[in-house]
Design goal:
Elements (H helix, E strand, L loop, with lengths): L7 E3 L10 E5 L9 H13 L3 E7 L8 H20 L4 E5 L2 H12 L3 E5 L4 H13 L3 E5 L7 H4 L7 H15 L25 H4 L15 H22 L12 H5 L5 H10 L5 H23 L12 H9 L11 H5 L6 H13 L4 H13 L4 H15 L6 H12 L20 H7 L2 H7 L2
Parallel strand pairs: 2-3, 2-5, 3-4, 5-6
Antiparallel strand pairs: 1-6
Bound molecules: flavin-adenine dinucleotide (FAD).
Protein name: Deoxyribodipyrimidine photo-lyase
EC number: 4.1.99.3
Keywords: DNA damage, DNA repair, DNA-binding, FAD, Flavoprotein, Lyase
Length: 448
């Protein structure tokens, strides 16, 4: 077996039928280092069947902003070329996957459909709809996590401390090198012309956030970014990753979010560099594997994952006890969006997010905690934080964003701290703390 059997599970009781194997690509939009594609290729090879890759893009899906669709489409164009090099066609279908995938599978007479794992609401609903409508076998492969989410733990983990030992125990088994994607015969492309990729503006007419020009999408740009990080900055990561002016972080999250780079590839690269940057490699692997995969664990096991109701009991209680505390400042969503608060530091963070499609990880925490402090309620703060993050961040609409906002606003995966106004026992951050960590004025000057 090419792919570890614990990465793979059936989503329908149906046996595989005759006919092509279709890989329904969703979250892992790359040709290389993709366990779902490798599994589909293996099934096709064993059955002597064609292999097709389908991508269904729903421009009306919640959070489908123009800048994210632009990044996705340009990355997918490169993926299509990589697939064609292996004589594997990519088909682009526009529309709600629940509506467009089943007719496609019927039209090509597919016997098996392989889909990559995604724990978010829209993806879970779409997979359930396809499972109900498709007569062949629907098989899911976790190609996004180093340790498959549904295998790593059978329950929602309380904190990173409870999740870490489970992951570390399984790393030797799952952090393995990737095999190459096999090439198919040229006949596998028959009847499938190259995709005429539409421009993002033609797909998303609501133009929620304009495209970001200075972050190159695609697998090649992702691989270069990884090589530069591991070669030049991994050493600095351990000490300087919380300084937004230091340029010490990897900046890889848009590529992981868009599936243009496998986190497992980045983990292998960091491990290989461990001898020259031991502390940096360890710190990076903790964020990349334990912290990132904890976010998938949370969303997968928490049906109301983006709501106040999903917070730990201690946090709900303490925030409720402080619901009527006087807010020294209380802003409407439009004030936050326009970076029109009284705080030059907060406004600079919002401008970084809106202008560049990125926000440094340390500033993200400060940014979201101040939204809690300056909003009418924690429920409103969660909604505003998620809406702004998902609209403007290139890596938005991701389990990491859900957890980041709920960690900041509602103590998710955290512990109670000293009691104070508005926050109750949720961990507090302020500008004075930022000034102790980095040159706040230099940061403000960059995003004036
Ligand atoms: C309010 C808030 C919102 C966030 N929204 C998002 C989001 O929409 N998408 C997103 O990918 N991340 C989000 N994060 C998590 C984290 O801030 C980003 O992953 C990180 O800043 C991305 O930059 P980087 O790739 O340079 O990270 P690096 O520091 O280089 O880390 C490498 C990788 O590890 C993972 N990682 C790092 N920090 C975290 C973390 N705290 N939790 C989970 N995984 C982590 C990411 O995949 C990241 O790309 C959010 C955090 C907060 C507090």
């Amino acid at each position: 077996m090419l792919v570890h059997p614990s990465r793979v599970r059936s989503l329908s009781p149906n046996a595989p039928g005759q006919g092509p194997v279709v890989y329904w690509m969703r979250r892992d939009q790359r040709a290389a280092d993709n366990w779902a594609l490798l599994h589909a290729a293996e099934l096709a090879r064993r059955a002597g069947a064609p292999l097709l890759v389908l991508f269904a893009l729903d421009p009306t899906a919640p959070g489908a902003s123009a800048r994210q669709i632009d990044f996705l489409l340009r990355g997918l164009a490169e993926t299509e070329m990589d697939l064609r090099d292996h004589n594997i066609p990519l088909i682009l279908a526009l529309g709600d996957p629940a509506a467009v995938v089943p007719p496609f599978l019927r039209q090509v007479g597919a016997g098996t459909c392989v889909v990559d794992f995604d724990p978010q609401h829209v993806a879970l609903r779409a997979a359930a709809a396809v499972a109900a409508a498709f007569a062949g076998a629907l098989v899911e492969v976790d190609a996004h996590n180093v340790v498959p989410c549904f295998f790593a733990s059978p329950r929602r983990e309380y904190t990173a401390a409870t999740f870490r030992p489970k992951i570390h125990k399984l790393l030797a088994e799952f952090l393995e090198p990737f095999p190459d994607l096999p090439a198919f015969s040229a006949a596998n492309l028959d009847g499938f012309a190259p995709v005429a990729f539409p421009a993002a503006a033609a797909v998303n007419t609501e133009t929620l956030g304009w495209p970001v020009a200075d972050v190159l999408p695609g697998a090649t740009a992702a691989t270069r970014t990884l090589a530069a990080f591991v070669g030049e900055r991994l050493n600095a990561y351990a000490e300087h990753r919380n300084d937004p002016n230091a340029g010490a972080v990897s900046t890889l999250s848009p590529y992981f979010h868009g599936g243009q780079l496998a986190p497992q590839r980045a983990a292998l690269a960091a491990l290989a560099a461990k001898s020259h940057a031991p502390a940096g490699a360890d710190a990076f692997l903790e964020e990349l594997i334990v912290r990132r995969e904890l976010c998938d664990n949370y969303c997968y096991y928490t049906p109301d994952y983006d709501q106040f109701s999903a917070l730990p009991d201690w946090a709900k209680k303490t925030l409720a006890a402080h619901a009527d505390d006087t807010r020294p400042y209380c802003y409407a969503p439009a004030d936050f969006e326009a970076a029109a608060t009284h705080s030059a530091l907060w406004n600079a963070a919002q401008r970084q997010l809106v202008r560049t499609g990125r926000l440094h990880g340390y500033m993200r925490m400060y940014w979201a905690k101040k939204i809690l402090e300056w909003s009418a309620s924690p429920q409103a703060a969660i909604a505003i934080g998620l809406e702004q993050n998902d609209r403007y961040a290139l890596d938005g609409n991701d389990p990491n964003g859900v957890v980041g906002v709920l960690w900041s606003v509602g103590g998710l995966h955290d512990r109670p701290w000293a009691n104070r106004a508005i926050f109750g026992q949720v961990r507090y951050m302020n500008e004075r703390g930022c000034r102790r960590k980095f040159d706040v004025d230099a940061y403000i000057a960059r995003y004036r």
